[in-house]
Amino acid sequence: MVNEAIIKDIFISTFNQIPMNITHIRDKGITNEVFIVEMSNQKLILRISQEPNTSQFEKEKWEMEQASQLGILTPKIFKVGSLGETIYMIEEYVEGIDGTESSLDRSIIWRKLGEYAKSIHSIPVVGFGDYMSSPGVFEGA
Fold it and tell me: The domain at 4-139 falls in which architecture?
């Protein structure tokens, strides 16, 4: 579990502000610890990695930038960084509901996800793996 003081230090160093409220999001992910961080002017998502370096978050940031260029809705990434041994990504908080809470016909949701998947598969990449050695070049298993 991440210490709240570390979260405050991350936001002071990034935005020069102390968070007003920090909420730990539980049971919504398996890889990272996730927090909603409320600042005086916005809500943000803080993801703390279990990995020892920033490479996974750098890869995700690149992937989201590529998807966004194709018109796929993605949160804005404010920062990927580290503070001591704490690896983190700060991203935009997006209001909404997940698909299980939607009143839309499930076929509409699945159709849109299929459109997004088709677009994502058009992004040129080289290799396959968890680590991005340069933009669009992936390595590892």
Answer: 2-Layer Sandwich (3.30)
